[in-house]
Amino acid sequence: xxxxxxxxxxxxxxxxxxxxxxxxxxxxxxxxxxxxxxxxxxxxxxxxxxxxxxxxxxxxxxxxxxxxxxxxxxxxxxxxxxxxxxxxxxxxxxxxxxxxxxxxxxxxxxxxxxxxxxxxxxxxxxxxxxxxxxxxxxxxxxxxxxxxxxxxxxxxxxxxxxxxxxxxxxxxxxxxxxxxxxxxxxxxxxxxxxxxxxxxxxxxxxxxxxxxxxxxxxxxxxxxxxxxxxxxxxxxxxxxxxxxxxxxxxxxxxxx
Length: 256
Known about the structure:
10 helices, TIM Barrel
């Protein structure tokens, strides 16, 4: 999954793709590099980011979704927790909703996903970190609540993916633990998405700025794939396509 932020303030690439032409051009580059999905977001979810009103967020993402959907066959994901934005993007050609609050922020989101028969990524999130929590238990309980909402709305289970939400309301130790124990989340029975690309977890372990976190990101994603991750959400597509192909080749051999 290639990350396409059409925002002025995202932590890594804010302002680089915040025009329609720049966004579409970057999406096409990522697809040429081997991305299977393009994930388009119009509001930064970095800590301290300013919340964007739904009409403004939709104005950023919908023209990009609409143009890109008319050009490519690969699925487009809309990265939003607002039902109104998801509805507009799905009408424009997106087929996946990537909700960083797992249906628990906007009461209308589950019904919107169900109405469009869209696929859904349920991500764990917390407003604040709490070092005293057993984060694996916390994530599982959150997923249970989100899955109940999805089931009540009629969202088919075979269209749901779970994301532990690395970097969202978690300490460094909790983030590392979730990657280390990803197989236990995989055992819930749904595909797993992992999003660690260029995040502060990488930066704090390596003491590297955002632009120097590629190698650490690759290492974390390879370990996640070995533990059961099905989708890696990344900024650097070409490097990760190579890393994924090698990882999968070795895993196939190991697993017979």
